[in-house]
Each structure stands twice: as structure tokens, then as C-alpha cells.
């Protein structure tokens, strides 16, 4: 009697699905293509809806600290940071819940940087590993972000120096806002915070600044 052949299917772990969506093949090369980076900073309502449909359950689990096993290695920790720091901003755009994962994401980033976990990731992964520090309303974390982003730039290959330089410039701009206001004025409306006269003048002059 011929032995029964059993086919074993390897399931992609959920954290890998997060990385595949956000970077596509970008983690296997120096920097993703423009079609990938568009959704990072110029996302459409359709992108927001897709993220909610595909990853909303994982975002909520991350906020409730139910994905602690994702913290153990660099790539899965990066995926967890993306859920907390990026996907929240898509699913809850313009709402206070958009910032619900910020503190946890920053904690994971700081701890990961102290253990050099981010250095084991491709360059684009390192940038997003550090991104919660750029979003923090804390001057010390802003300093850590700018210093860490600058260190990335110093060792970036010529082919993606321009992309990393953009992140350094953004980190510097975010740090200056925190030094000036102690918080991000463009979040005040979503968080129900009353803007000062200086903040209102700034917002009228600069308009939208992301989330």
C-alpha cells in the first residue's frame, strides 16, 4: 500500500503580512519603489480603508498589548511598531484614537534602539523603527530620533541618501516644533486641546502637517 502523502503548507505569520503590505519587496533591496512609498506619506482614503479591513484586528490587539510575542525579534517588532505608529493614523485619521498607540510604539523603539535591534533591519525598516520617536511630544525622544536618523544617513548608500535625508529633515522639523510649543499644534483639534494664540498663528500660516 502506497504511503499517504501529506502536503504541509507554511502559513505566513501575521507580522510578515504587515511588513509585506507596508514595504512590499522593499526589505529585500536598498529602498522601495515610488509606488510603495506613496502610501506612506500620500495615502488615499482607499489605502486607509484597506488597512482597516486587513489589519484593524491586529491594530486593536497591539493597542491592548496582546501581541507581546511580536516584540522578540527585529522584524516582528518593526511590524508591531507599524501597527501602533502608522496603521493607527490610517484607520483613525483625524481622530484622537490615531495616537492611541504612540506611547507604546515609542517605548518599543527606545528599547529596541538600546539593544541595537533596528540595526539588524534594512535601511527603510530602520527609518520606520525610529518613526515613533519623531511622533513623540517629548524633547529627549526628539533628540534621540534626530541623532539616530543622522547616523542612518551617514552610512546610507548613495542610491537612497536622498530618501534618508528627507527623514532627517522631517526629524529636525518635528524637534523644532516640540522645542517651540512642547507639543504638536496640528494635533490639538483631534485631541480636543485648546490652541494658544501662538499655535493658532502657526497653524494659519503652515496649514496641514500630517498627524
N to C succession of SSEs: HHHHHHHHHH
Cα(first) to Cα(last) distance is: 65 Å
The CATH architecture would be Alpha Horseshoe
- Determine the structural class based on helices, strands and strand pairing: mainly alpha
* Count of DSSP strands: 0
CATH names the topology as Serine Threonine Protein Phosphatase 5, Tetratricopeptide repeat
Major beta sheet summary: none
Protein name: DUF924 domain-containing protein
Pfam families: DUF924
Organism: Alcanivorax jadensis T9
In short:
This protein is mostly helical and 211 residues long.
What does this structure look like?
The protein has one domain (14-183): Alpha Horseshoe (Serine Threonine Protein Phosphatase 5, Tetratricopeptide repeat). The protein is mostly helical. It is globular, with a radius of gyration of 19 Å. Helix 1 packs across helix 4 (74-91) and helix 7 packs antiparallel against helix 8. 62% of the residues lie in helices and 0% in strands. It has 10 helices and no strands. Pfam families: DUF924. It comes from Alcanivorax jadensis T9. This is DUF924 domain-containing protein.
Features:
Serine Threonine Protein Phosphatase 5, Tetratricopeptide repeat; 211 residues; mainly alpha
Helix/strand layout:
Elements: H1 14-23, H2 34-41, H3 45-63, H4 74-91, H5 102-114, H6 123-134, H7 139-154, H8 161-181, H9 188-191, H10 197-206
Helix pairs in contact: 1-4, 3-4, 4-5, 4-6, 5-6, 6-7, 7-8
Organism: Alcanivorax jadensis T9
Protein name: DUF924 domain-containing protein
